[in-house]
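Standup notes
- HV: blocked on the assembly model, inputs below
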Amino acid sequence: MGHKLAAGFCLAISLGAVTAAANAATIEPQDVVIREAEVESSLTGSPGDPAAGSKWFKSRKLGNCLACHGNRDQIGEPFHGDIGPPLDGVADRYSEGELRAILVNAKSVFGPDTIMPGFYRVFDGQRVRKEFQGKPVLTATQVEDVIAYLKTLKEE
Amino acid sequence: MVMRTKIALLSAAAAGLVMSGYAFALPEGVDTVQVTATAKDHPLGELYSGWHFRTPETQALQQDDFENPGFLWVEQGAELWETVDGSEQKSCASCHEDAADSMATTGAQMPKWNEALGKPVNLEQQINMCRSERMGAKPWKWESSELLSMTSFVRNQSRGTPVEVQIDGPMTPWFEKGKDLYNTRVGQLDLACVNCHQNYYGQSIRADRLSQGQSNGFPTYRLKWQKIGSLHRRFKGCMDQVRAEPYKVGSDEFLALELYVNWRGQGLPVEAPAVRQ
């Protein structure tokens, strides 16, 4: 039992090391620089996957963008929210850098009173539940996936 | 001052009673759905019961006392009211007699200041203080079937009575604390009560239509819970959803928040037991 636990622990550490190495270029939430409502370059150093982004957009566990935003591209999904503006044609209204800034920390773009959560922020204090402490809502890869997907939402 | 809404399908005042969608009579000038805020510094103009935001099916379920599942708890509470318990061989009725008279306004006025404790107590806490101090009986656990039944029964005696809580004098610091909690962002999603329930009520998060977060229907039978629950349980649920570590039911924080939220619904009639989604 003790051996198994120890072995599992070592495996976890080495896996962690491998992941860290693979994501060497990844910018951590606290290091993201938002300049004039834009985050210029990819958080991971590479472009995201729009198909994956479409999944995070509707996933109730992850981005859940659909909870608040309507989106004609996902008309087959039930119950689009109407708290925020519909995102049809959002790629025509915002640059990639602006979309990234909004996703990372909407307050940096829309002001401190916005209801929109920041999806790539970590909080000290404010009673964040244990399992979410020190973690952003989305990983850097997932943020880039969502941005890649949003860039496909153009007015016809 | 009573406003009418299209959704409510209310008829005109008749024979001195305001007839509403409800099966019971309300005091004159009191509408179950919407009243105008009376406090001049109230952040909302019109106050809407959570009933206003639910589907016609859910509304109908609340309106019919025979169909309303919350009445299972009200009925159990009525039995407990008469049940002798504890070393003093007393029931609630031994002191308070007919609840229809003695509790007609109690449910609308909690939490109330308690001089001996030097803090406010809400209905759950008052019931348990009566049990331990007057009856010599064990206090009931929060969210137990017994405590839910008794709070449902007592609050139901005040049904139709406009909510009116004291916020001046020694209650003021508790009111301010509650207001502060209401406006403080918490959790990974970084949201405060005010962000949803003041700024976006009537709009939808997925299938869920946001209400003003009024408390006049509690204890409330929630279809999602498949049972009746306390206001503090509901607070906890909201905090869970924004990924915050909730305060404990019965905590000073939730007591302060209860006082402030009740004040935000000042004038709305008590609806307990309400039915919600």
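- HV (later): unblocked. Chain B has eleven helices and nine strands. The first helix of chain B runs from residue 56 to 63.
- Next: hand off to the docking folks.
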